[in-house]
Amino acid sequence: MEGNLLNWIIFLPTIAAVLCLIVPSNRAVKVIAILASGVTLALSLGLFPHFAWWGQDAAGIFGGAYGQKLYEVTKFTWITLGEGDNATPIQYYVGVDGLSFPLVILTTVISFLAALASWNIEHWKVNHGVRGYFCLFLLLETGMLGVFCALDFFLFYIFWEVMLLPMYFLIGVWGGPRKEYAAIKFFIYTLVGSVLMLVALLAFYFYAPVGHRTFDLLKMATDPEIQQAFGSATFLGWRFAPFMFILLYVGFAIKIPVFPFHTWLPDAHVEAPTPISMILAGVLLKMGAYGLLRISYPVLPMVGPEAAWPLAVLGLINIIYGALCAMAQTDFKRLVAYSSISHMGYVLLGIAIMTPAGLQGAMFQVIAHGISSPMCFFLVGVIYDRAHHRDINRFGGLWLTMPVYGSLATVGFFASLGLPGLCGFIGEFWVLIATFSANFAWAKPAAVLAATGVILTAGYILWMIQRVYLGKQREEYKGFPEVSFREVAILVPLAVLALVLGILPEQSLFRFMNGTLNQITDLCARHGDMLTAAVGTFARP
Amino acid sequence: MVGIAHPTSMSNIEQLLVAGVLIPLASFLILALCGYRLGKPLAGWVAVLAIASSCVLSAAALVKWHGLDEAGRLAARSAPVLWAYLGSVPLAFGVNLDSLTLIMFFMVTLVSTCIFVFSVGYMAGHSDEIDGLSKFHRFFTYLSLFGFSMLLLLIADNLLLLFISWELVGLCSYLLIGFYFHKKSASTAAIKAFVTNRVGDCGFIIGLGMAYLYLGDLSLSGAAQAFAGQWQTHGPLFSQTFLGLNLATWMGILLFCGAIGKSAQFPLHVWLPDAMEGPTPVSALIHAATMVAAGVYLTARIFVLLTPEAQLFVAVIGCITLTLAALVAMVQTDIKKVLAYSTISQLGYMMLGMGVGAWIAALFHLLTHAFFKALMFLGSGQVIEGCHHEQDMRKMGGLWRKMPVTCGTFLVGVLAIAGAGIPAIWMPNHTPFGLGGYFSKDEILAVAYHRVYGEENVAADAPVGRGEAEASPHTGNTAVVAGAAPIQNPKSKIQNAALPPWLFWIPIIIAYITPFYMLRAWWLTFMGKPRDHHVYDHAHESPLMYLPLVVLALGTFFSSYYLFRPLVADAAPTPFLTAAFDGEATEAADAHGLLIGHTTHAALARIVGGAFVVGFFVAWVLYRRGLGLAEKLATALRPVHVLLSHKFFFDEFYGLVFVGGTMVLKAVSYAFDKYVVDALVNLSALVTERLSWISGTILDQGVVDGAVNGVGRGTWSLGGLARSPQVGRIRNYILFAAGSVAVVVLWMAFA
Q1: pLDDT per residue over A476-521, tens digit each?
Q2: A89 belongs to a structural domain
Q3: Residue A260: inside a domain, yes or no?
Q4: Do B199 and A455 touch (CB under 8 A)?
């Protein structure tokens, strides 16, 4: 039956989490976790035929209005709210389109690799509770996949919260010295965001005209009466739509994270164990951008043009301020964390200008960063496991000590730097070009400023490489073993993905998502002449 | 692609070129994955074999191309392949098949082959391990990657593909400059090179943005056509201005920024001298012969997008660069630094040539320069290797006895760069004799002369092919159509105006200085008496290294007017470039190798024909008895000498302003992050905690507990829990959150 595949993908990790509680040994728990995330990955690859360009006419993938081309849909009423005319179903409604599909694949890939990276949990500082760790890990995977697949706002909210709690414990229990501080900071920040989201959720329900009330995200975006009502209503004396947009934005901005809500990220990363950092950077940060594109813009498209310049300014601050802060770090993990902030700035900038090229770039950057930053975090983890510290200034000559590791690190960090031929370049380049050609008065200066971020990025990454990998070998690190087979098995897939995305962006990514992104820009363009005037729509092959 | 029906499958010539690009890539993959098993010297020979086969393939392509007529050449271009959509603009990549690509391809592969062979000898002479890491195969891995990237750059027909390969050669440059990365100076030089280039790339990206926005096409031919169209319709590129210059000019200048970085032009020239930290074959191949010339190649490719104002910008940058670099080269004592500055200076000449419209001459100079500069660098590598890594010329001298082949071939290079030849002043219709540089540099100067003092304007005489191209847009989309570009834009202020005279006179003066500093370097190294016997006694040369020198020396001899120039001229984008000069020059064409009239040539020959004699003579007088005289002179002119030997203090200035500025900014940013943003977050947490204390301790314990005396014990324990900060914060927070949500729900339900 169509639809079951996606449900299996979402809930297989949960089933495995339950199994983890039953099986006798720690080793069995680890095997189950890795098998489960592996099978989830394999199942998610089963989504490819829906999106693959072979054997389908292009209109089959790209045609139709927003919300009409969904795959693996499961939809049934879960709870009915109200009675009679007012009866509103809260649905279990999941499905994938071009926006969520790449993120589902990214989640399963990163989760599998992070599970592999957790294999040596017995050697961590906090090495107890293997069972609990993997159980929470698998629950987290369900939460993440659910967020990306849910098409009902209520369900989305549930999954959003489901993901929050395991993350809190994973950082708070298995983290570094200041784990409690970091975990609580993360938790409260995200909770503030989700409470604001909850207000928006309720407001969306109450402000829709009676008889049209719904939690269905696609219906909210496409029902003209709801759109009409959202566009004209007021809320506590303010215009409804911008107010809701801000509420949602804060929730998502905390996740991206956007200045000034970003300070939880370096702390969370520094304290989280390596695999959790990989998930945090690779998947969790993407939810903010996803939320903006799945909820904020489609449901409140009338706000898009107004929101453009503030979001672009915040994006620029992220890019440049994040890069400067990254340059100031001496803790290796903090540096990578701030570089994430800088890179996510391009995502926000690309979304803000709302042109097809901008969205393409933003989403590509989302996926590209989802590959390069887990790789960077794992690279940091590899030496942390050996040196038990992360002070950049105390390293040196590691390329000589561990040549294979050094070479793989070069690939990872150059992907992060945005070297053409690797994944980081495409997103940045697309966003820069799209920003420059956007039809706003501030677009060109913004593009020029954003382009200077390219120089700063090169600066802090190369400086870090010089201090950690180049230079003379240090005595205390001479005995370090070369990367193990397991470590190579985690790094090489990421490196290969970085290469494939960088060399064949169309075939590896754009093909799948351009259709949906185009529908979203179309949706927003109806509300702002300026957007249509900008760069038009996608040429459909 | 503008309605031209190109075959979708690649022609034979294109296949040859693409194979030529892919073979070094294969070699890179082989060496990267199992190079350490191949060991020394096998890994090196794999790379040599790869690049040599590319060279053979490109020679075959060149021969095939030579046999084709105009129609056949057009037919040999296949349609580009779609890579991705940027918004609605398709980006398609293909092979930019024209004479320039082919001759550049051949030159690069030939020079590379020589240098790869040399490297096998050079690297074999070094100890195999730096601290345990085998470096022999790593060197050839990088070299192969460089070969691939550089060749990709040459065949790219799209500005974006050009940029991608452009960055890849930059990566190779970074890796190779930092090859001896256990030395801090090497890794710092590598960073400097990469970051400085990124500054230029930043401008280039904005230029690409302009091309995307206003031209709607990033392919070289498509952009050129759209540009011509904009000019005809007076589109936004020409009607809108920014800071007094029209957008078309800005686009040209911004795209040229990339070339400023890569070709080490003022003000981004500072990285190239430091790049000499890399092994000498790398300096020869990447930082003299091929990669740094890529900036000139780029300028040649975007030439049709340059307005007269943008061209003037190019010329001025070139002129400043060639002057600064030549002056600094006069006082350097490190043999590689002299060559580095001379490279910058020669690149300045090429840019000047581009700027004054001497497209053919500039590229011709690029080709000849590649041979003689590679020759001299390898010569210096031989010297350095033979002298146990001594690079200071003050400790050399008299090496000709120990290294006769190196000495002789180096002299060939010196003669070539000095522009030595026998000018045919006295017999105007006679074929002159000269080395490559003699023809190419003089041709640049001749065109500059023509633009400064020539009759009226060159351009106006030109029977520009615009009409034809517009009339039949289906006949070709290649660089030939690009000839329709508005080199003479009537709306432009300086359009037909003569260039300022200093753009001619300063390069002339520098043409006297070039032979001086080159002969100085040669004399100090090979002639005179040995100044350091320790160095002298060790000196030796080895055949694996000097055979490539001989090949390159032969190349320097034969890369002359008669072999290379016709092919370059063949690819010229603008009919006017050839036609304008051809018009009055048909009978003068043989005179000096310049397609310019008698008057220009005769005047020029009088001014600069003997420059190399003068320069050589001064150097000989100054240095024939060792360093004594020169040192006296340096003391006498101390301020000047200090200024020059400190390279005009560019490094100090940039270090203070840009690096220092960034360091301050980063510290300020992070302090702000830590002490303002994060402090606010922690403050709000603290406030919540205090509030929880008030509610827990004061209200709960004091008021409620005091009032309800009987349940005091239970409340006490709860309050104790709340005192623990984390638990207290969350509990209260959730209470607060749930409460406020409830209020909102109630309010909305009843509103």
Answers
A1: 888 888 888 999 999 999 999 999 999 998 888 888 888 888 888 8
A2: no
A3: no
A4: yes
Tell me how many residue pairs between chain A and chain B have CB atoms under 8 A apart: 178
Q: Which of A324, A419, A539 sits opposite B171 (nearest CB)?
A: A419
Residues listed for chain B:
751
Contact B741 A329 (CB under 8 A): no
Instruction: List the domain range (segments joined by +) for residue A320.
Output: 305-514
Q: What is the pLDDT of residues B518-541, one digit of tens each?
A: 888 888 888 877 777 777 777 777
SS3 B433: strand
Q: Taking the alpha carbons of A204, A206, A210, A211 in that order, is the dihedral positive or negative?
A: positive
Question: Where do runs of H (alpha helix) occur along B674-711?
Answer: 678-693, 705-707
Statement: residue B578 has pLDDT above 70: no
Considering only CB atoms, A195 lies closest to which of B131, B669, B737, namely B737
Name the one residue in this structure whose structure tokens are 């570089």: A339
Per-residue pLDDT tens over the stretch B216-247: 888 888 888 888 888 888 888 888 888 888 88
**B212: nearest CB among A184, A264, A437:** A437
Q: Which DSSP category does B648 fall into?
A: G
From chain A, the residues in CB contact with B212 under 8 A are 433, 436-437
The two three-digit tokens of residue B379, written as one number: 């010569």
Residue type, A250: V
Residue B376 near residue B339 (C-beta atoms within 8 A): yes
- Is the CA virtual torsion B558, B560, B563, B564 positive or negative? positive
- Fill in the amino acid letter for B214: Y
Handedness of CA A212, A218, A220, A224 (dihedral sign): negative
Q: Which of B82, B202, B732 to mutate to test the interface with A (most CBs of A within 10 A)?
A: B202
Two tokens at A218? 């696609």
Q: Between the CA of residue B61 and those of B158, B173, B476, B570, what are the distances in Å?
A: 21, 28, 21, 16
Nearest by CB to B86, from A357, A435, A448: name it: A357
Contacts of A401 in chain B (CB under 8 A): 132
Asked if the structure places residue A330 within a domain, the reply is yes
Q: What is the distance between the alpha carbons of residues B550 and B545, in angstroms, rounded to a whole number?
A: 9
Helix, strand or coil for residue B307? coil
- Answer whether A360 sits within 8 Å of B178, measured CB to CB: no
Q: Could you check whether the bond before residue A257 is cis, i.e. omega within 30 degrees of 0? A: yes
Q: Report yes or no on A202 lying in a domain.
A: no
DSSP run (H or E) holding B390? none
User: Which helix (H) or strand (E) covers residue A95, if one does?
Assistant: strand A88-96
ipTM: 0.90
Residue A437: its chain B contacts at CB < 8 A? 87, 209, 212-213
CA distance A488 to A498: 15
* Partner residue facing B90 (CB), from A328, A426, A539: A539
Please give the model's pTM, rounded to 2 decimal places: 0.87
CA distances from B38 to A481, B133, B139 (A): 23, 15, 13
Q: Which residues contact A109 (CB under 8 A, 6 or more apart)?
A: A41, A493, A497
**Structural domain total, chain A:** 1
Q: Choosing among B182, B183, B692, which should be mutated to test the A contact, i.e. which has the most A CBs within 10 A?
A: B182
How many other CB atoms are found less than 10 A from the CB of residue A223?
17
Check CB contact under 8 Å for A325 and B670: yes
Average pLDDT, chain B: 78
Query: Tokens 């004594």 label which residue?
Result: B628
For every residue of A2-47, which 3-state class applies, written as one string?
CCHHHHHHHHHHHHHHHHHHHCCCHHHHHHHHHHHHHHHHHHHHCC
* Partners of residue B194 in chain A, C-beta under 8 Å: 458, 462
Cβ distance of A260 and B677 shorter than 8 Å: yes
DSSP 3-state of B82: strand
Q: At what angle do helices B598-608 and B436-453 cross, to 10 degrees?
A: 120
Burial bucket for residue A35 (CB in 10 Å: 0-12, 13-18, 19+): middle
